[in-house]
Amino acid sequence: MTTFWFIVIAFLWTGYFVLEGFDFGVGALLPLLSRSEADRRQVLGTIGPVWDGNEVWLITAIGAMFAAFPAWYSGLLSGFYLPVFLVITGLIVRGVGLEWRGKVHSRREVALCDAGIVTGSVLPAFLWGAIFGNLLFGTALATVLGGALSLSVAVLHGAVFVALKTTGGVRARARRAALLAAVGAMPVALSTLPSVPGRGPLWTLGTALLAAAALAAGVTLVWGRREGWAFAATATAITATTATVFGVLSAAPLPGLTLAEAASAPYTLTLLTWIGLIALPGVLAYQAWTYWVFRKRLTAEVSLNA
After folding, report:
1. Which of 9, 171, 256, 278 is 20 to 30 Å from 218 by CA-CA measure?
2. Residues facing residue 298 across a β-bridge
3. What residues are paired with 257 via a beta bridge?
4. How big, in percent rounded to 5, are the helix, strand and coil portions of the chain?
5. Residue 298 pLDDT > 80, yes or no?
């Protein structure tokens, strides 16, 4: 049960980083992809129906950690209290910006909402990478590289998503932004590869190489205007990166703490399993349905009338 719940938590974090990753990227790119209010509404319309649902993955992941691995939960959140606090603050500010933007009318108020969206996207995107980089390697350099990697990949992922979901000038600018983001993401991703061997199981080297290859494939595909396949490639890169991180953490999720030591009692894990088997399929089905309903591209006209 201990290994099973570690895999479940890794799956939940993976879902969060893949789905919230493009949310962060879209928010960070808002001022760069927009030339008018119609453009800004078109960009934000790509995540409007899904961003709050994507945050549920974080709540579920943290909740599962609390129930299944309370020692890991308490050690992670207390050891990284300030960055986690800043992440939560950023998510709140971004949520307020997204919800209130359509309800205010003055240019100053709209600009404040936009600033909140950008800040609340950039901050968590950088800090999550910094937290896990520090958790894995415990050095200042790893912290900065982890933050730079997660932010640059989120921007790339978000740019590809906007290109996939829009038309016209916004789509063209999103493709260019994706190529520029790759200039930052690829060197950072490649610089982290030498640190993987010896840190975790042998298969983590394979997932790290897969992440780098998928990232490169995503850049090539977006250059060829194959946005759907490019998005699948960047999502694969994030999935493989998260698998690598949790593969390394599988031996010791915190320094000096094994999974067995961090886990709850067998009865608690069994009860959690039954709850998960009942609840999780419904949550996944609902979110899949949401993405299916809002699968079409957005035009500026549709965004303005929404």
Report:
1. 9
2. 166
3. 254
4. 85, 0, 15
5. no
Residue type at 222 in one-letter notation:
V
Give, in order, the Cα–Cα distances in Å from 18 to each of 15, 102, 109, 232, 234: 5, 26, 31, 10, 9
For residue range 35-72, what is the model confidence (pLDDT) as tens digits? 999 899 999 999 988 898 899 899 999 999 999 999 99
Q: DSSP of 213-266, one letter per residue? A: HHHHHHHHHHHTT-HHHHHHHHHHHHHHHHHHHHHHHTT-SBTTB-HHHHS--H
Residue 298 near residue 48, CB atoms below 8 Å: no
pLDDT over 90, % of the chain: 56
Q: What is the pLDDT of residues 15-45, one digit of tens each?
A: 999 999 999 999 999 999 999 998 999 999 9
The mean pLDDT of 183-207, rounded to a whole number, is 83
Do 263 and 5 form a contact (C-beta atoms < 8 A)? yes
The rounded distance, in Å, linking the Cα atoms of 91 and 57 is 13
Nearest C-alpha neighbor of 129 from the set 256, 250, 8, 17: 17
Tally of helices (H runs) and strands (E runs) in the chain: 13, 0
Among 284, 202, 210, residue whose Cα is nearest residue 247: 202
CB 22 within 8 A of CB 177: no
User: How far, in Å, CA of 187 to CA of 274, rounded?
Assistant: 44
Q: Which of 178, 168, 175, 225 is nearest to 36 (CA)?
A: 168
pLDDT tens sequence across 165-177? 998 899 999 999 9
User: What is the structure's pLDDT at 161?
Assistant: 95
Look-up: residue for tokens 């035009």? 299
Q: Which two tokens stand for residue 130?
A: 């910094």
Spell out the domains of the chain, with CATH numbers in brackets.
1-291 (1.20.1630.10)
Average pLDDT of span 122-129:
96
